[in-house]
Design goal:
- This protein is about 45% helix and about 20% strand.
- The chain has a five-stranded parallel sheet, sandwiched between helices.
- Helix 4 links the parallel strand 4 and strand 5.
């Protein structure tokens, strides 16, 4: 049996973390959540997630800071959440693989995760 893919959810809104923990868990993923950008960097290094779902606008260490730091040591696929479309291109320049606009449809997010894990992740291994 294949190991479940580990998803790291990083969002400062507890409701988003709870929603995604339930939805992704029911979709067969192992889910780790944090509401802290600093902890997200540490968890990326220690938990080795298969993909990161990252809110851009967070207090303290922002999602852009997390993205920038993670890219210094990992090529893990990262999907950003944002309610600000102007941030998308900047995040892609920082190394984000994809984005989803807030508010988002959880079913669409699951499909996007499958797409990113099925294509981008394999391409980066080469």
């Amino acid at each position: 049996m294949d190991a479940r893919k580990r998803v790291l959810v990083v969002d400062d809104e507890p409701r988003i973390c709870d929603l995604l923990r339930i939805k992704l868990g029911l979709s067969g993923y192992e889910v780790v959540t944090t509401m802290s950008g600093a902890e997200a960097i540490e968890l990326t290094a220690t938990q080795n997630p298969d993909i990161i779902l990252l809110d851009v606008v967070m207090p303290g260490v922002s999602g852009m800071d997390v993205l920038d730091k993670v890219r210094t040591f990992s090529e893990v696929p990262i999907i950003i959440f944002t309610g600000r479309p102007e941030i998308v291109q900047l995040a892609k320049r920082f190394g984000a693989d994809d984005y989803i606009a807030k508010p988002f449809n959880p079913d669409l997010l699951v499909e996007k995760i499958k797409l990113v894990l099925g294509t981008n992740h394999d391409e980066k291994k080469r």
